[in-house]
Amino acid sequence: MIDVKHLTKTYASTTAVDDLSFRVEPGQVTGFLGPNGAGKSTTMRLILGLATPTSGQALVNGRPYREAPEPMREVGALLDATAVHPGRSAYNHLLALAATHGIGEIRVAEVLAQVGLTPVARKRVGGFSLGMQQRLGIAGALLGDPAVLMFDEPVNGLDPDGVRWIRHLMRGLAAEGRTILLSSHLMSEMALTADHLVIIGRGRLVADTPLSDLTSAYPSLEEAYLQLTGSSVEYR
Amino acid sequence: MTPHTLRAEWIKLRSLRSTWLVLAVSLGSILMAAGLALMANGMYDAAPASRRDAAQLTELEDVVIIVPQLCLGILGVLAAVKDIPASYLAVPRRWPVLAGKTAGIAAIGLIVGQAAMFGSALVTRLVVGDRFHLEPLADRVPLLVVSGLSVVVLGLLGLGLGTLLRSVAACVALLAGVLYVFPIISFNVPGVAGEWGRSVMIGGLPRLIVGADLTNTVYGTRLSASGAAAVLAAYAVVPVLAGVWALRRRDL
Amino acid sequence: MRAEWIKLRSTASTHYAVGTAALVLVLGVAWTLYVDSIWHERGLRSAAAAEEGFLPVVQLAVAVIGVLAATGEYATGLIRQTLTVTPRRSRLLLDKAAVVALTAFAVSAAVLLATASAARLVGDYPMAELDVAQLLAHALAATVLSLAGLGLGVVTRSTAGAVSGVVALLFVVPGIVNLLPTPWSTRIGAFLLPNLVPQAFLPERAGLEPLAAIGLLLLYAAVPLAAAWAVFTRRDV
Known about the structure:
The structure holds three protein chains of three kinds. Chain A is of the alpha/beta class. Helix content of chain A is 36%, strand content 25%. In chain A, the strands form two sheets. In chain A, strands 5-6-7-3-8-9 form a six-stranded mixed beta sheet, sandwiched between helices. Chain A has a three-stranded antiparallel beta sheet with strand order 2-1-4, covered by helices on one side. The longest helix of chain A has 16 residues, at 160-175. Chain A is globular and about 50 Å long. By secondary structure, chain B is an all-alpha fold. Chain B has one domain. Helices cover 78% and strands 0% of the residues of chain B. Chain B is built from twelve helices and no strands. Chain B has helices at 3-14, 17-46, 49-52, 60-64, 66-81, 85-90, 95-128, 137-165, 168-188, 191-199, 205-210, 225-249.
């Protein structure tokens, strides 16, 4: 479970996240929506301790991520799939991450197979397509078999097969009782994948609601999203 | 630092081609010493016998040490700058990542430094034979050991700077600054400031530490042996600690 | 070419490099004041002028500008977009070289002249006459170094590799040659980059003729650039 409480993050002149509170419950896929620059990625980085909140806090399984004794076994995350060393092979990239938690080579081979990268495991990541990098990032998130998973735009760059694969993966992980937070701009895909939605705009909460409530009140999810965020699509 | 983070950092280091390239170039310093010694031989043999006695050759291990020093510095910079946020997701306390890198770079620097120093010293004497009047190898063992350790210091200096500044260009330029620009400036500054500058240069510290004679050299003698050891250690410790401090506070 | 200028000028690293070079002015004044404070009691007959002492800082800073003009685009993947909008690669490389050269020359000439003038303004100790031609030649050498950095950057596509290459040209090789036995050190030394400008202005130091020295200096830029051209026009990005 992820518990975001009055989270605020200000940079020199802008407020990226503004008094944001929501919960992500286990056993379902929670979609995380908002226009570009609304603060989705910043929120995820705050939850994961990569950035320090100006005020408020984000708890994962009841404590800040940085205090987790074995973080990868609690939370798996895919933030920026392109943030890998291009000269390293997929296998070695995962092996180094696995080693931090004493996770062995067998598990590395398992997740590589799970994301379909086994044939290119020994190839340098620099030659990977964006879709393959996304799969590698997802493999890294799954390494510690965590109960909480966060994915920032995992569908970017995937082919139609890959998009469907992600959808089934997310649904499957949620069905196992895991907590899934998933951000995406593809409304049609989100409508098929998510059970619950958290929508933010300009760093503030716009909606925190079951998917069905939105789809019954509006003609489509896309329509609902555009109307809810309409006032906040403006870059600062 | 746990055995786990240590192993992770080791995997990261060994899985990059740049690491092996840097190591190869570092140990290439031994070949370089051999080549320079051959050149010196040619010159010596061409000279008339009467002038041979006066012919002098700097101990070539002191000449080529710059290569492993720079290489380890660059390796340290790359290890720090090219790391990815995912590393800090796996180890959110962050400092163990740097501790693991420190151990890895120090281990590589220890091996490469000693190998390059003793290798080039040995090769030089084998090639030169009884030409020139080189200091016997046995008399130089303490200096070679300490000079080899300066390679570790450069590696950790690069690691600390890389963590602090996160820019390969800036850090490599700074390494060149420490190894070359600072000495050049120190040579040109008259008076006490220049004397101090020449005393704390990395090139001269090993000699100060082992108590070698520094008359007729460019180096200053303001420091005692233990003072020199402290300064040499500080070149490594201060940047790494600064890196830990920066890593704790900053957003990734 | 305008595009290249905008890219160079809008990059933070360029500002840092220019700032570092400009810091030389401040350091140069400090140096001059310090030497002034001691030269009487020490009876110095002459001491290096500030711009001479800090020359390597300027050289290194503009060399880094050249390297980053190339490797910065590879590191960010911008190179693909650049080549999409400017598919004629020879032209692109030429534009880049022109912009880097102009910037490097302007920055180094301005910093060296300003430092030299400031030093003579605040300093009383005996230092060499202000020789504008020689300072401009030093700026030219710095420009050559930044073009060599650009060439190495294109060839290696690695910031670490290209900066190391420049450092080798400027410091490592001269340092090693300097320690060779005497006839060799001067003979080889005459051909090394840092010694070319002094030879052009102090012919009595033997070695190369002034014109040959300047010609060789330009070769130090031309060879890496030619290598860059050969690689850049053939290689897939």
